Amino acid sequence: MIWRIIATGGALSFLVTGFSVLGNPNCISADLGGGRVVGVTCRQDSYGSFSGSAAGLILCFAGIALLGFIYRQFIGEYFAGTKQPKIEYSLTPTSEKVANDYSAKKKLEEKIVDDLVMAKVCYSCGIPAEELWHLECKACGETTFVHKKIPKSVEAANPEFKTCPMCAEEIKFAAKKCRYCQHMLDN
Fold first, then answer.
1. Taking a C-beta distance cutoff of 8 angstroms, is the pair 121, 129 a contact?
2. CA 59, CA 40: separation in Å to the nearest integer?
3. Which of 122-131, 134-143, 177-186 has the highest mean pLDDT?
4. Residue-wise pLDDT tens digits, 99-112
5. pLDDT at position 155
6. In the chain, how long is the greatest CA-to-CA distance?
7. What is the 8-class DSSP label of residue 161?
8. Closest by CA position to 112, among listed 125, 134, 128, 97
9. Order of all β-strands in the sheet with 29-33
């Protein structure tokens, strides 16, 4: 968000400089240059590298191009006629597909607890980031996140592993026989 503000200031400075060069009647030719900042030197003779109008138009075009790049997502949504997608709070990337099936939706609702936790949620698709330090959404690749309270998930009903009662080794939950001590498990 802060980068958009800073970049917008830079783009607007290009536009202001371009319009000031275009509005200057004494600027017959101009030299573009500078180090970290683009500078324009207006000249009253024709020995500059660009004509005054060409230099002004170049700067205006650069400002408009930067603004277009900064706000490309919003411009695309405006011309496509789409609005910001409704964020559905789910903990799985396939939540839209699951929501269409009523029985699957009921099962998903049973896994959600009333407790809310603060999470980093993708601005575009609404999928929570797995870790707070992730800079990119795993589902859509977007880099803009918002912090919101979302439902806390419940642990799965069937754990992936269980402990063997004879040797205390960790084995898969669906196992009928321990692979370490060969003890038959009653499931």
1. yes
2. 9
3. 177-186
4. 455 555 555 555 55
5. 39
6. 98
7. E
8. 128
9. 39-43, 29-33, 50-51
